[in-house]
Design goal:
single chain; 120 residues; mainly beta; four-stranded antiparallel beta sheet; 11 strands; 0% helix; 62% strand
């Protein structure tokens, strides 16, 4: 069993910052890519940022220059530093991780999400 748990969401004023964390735990052999996605009310879930096992990153155009994704492989944790937040960043943020289990099965695991609300 593998669990993925996000933390760090909350309410912040426009222009402020938040740092999200996501930790994977359980029967993990190794983790491939990790990423953050978000879903605003009435909208489809969209990719925010992804990071490979060797640190290559990719961002949605809407967050480039404001958000930074990073990971700590020793802790099986991925972070999302969000600066210069805008009201349109308000959404539930979900973390996902591509995990090779100790049984060598590969599966994409998702967390339950953390709410980020940016007030104007």
């Amino acid at each position: 069993q593998v669990q993925v748990v996000e933390s760090g969401g909350g309410l912040v004023q426009a222009g402020g910052s938040l740092r999200l964390s996501c930790a994977a735990s359980g029967s993990i052999f190794s983790i491939n890519g990790m990423g953050w996605h978000r879903q605003a009310p009435g909208k489809q879930r969209e990719l925010v940022a992804v990071i490979s096992s060797i640190g290559s990153t990719n961002y949605a155009d809407s967050v480039k220059g404001r958000f930074t994704i990073s990971r700590d492989n020793a802790k099986n944790t991925v972070y999302l530093q969000m600066n210069s937040l805008k009201p349109e960043d308000t959404a539930v943020y979900y973390c996902n991780a591509g995990v090779y289990s100790t049984g060598r099965d590969y599966r994409d695991y998702w967390g339950r999400g953390t709410q980020v609300t940016v007030s104007s």
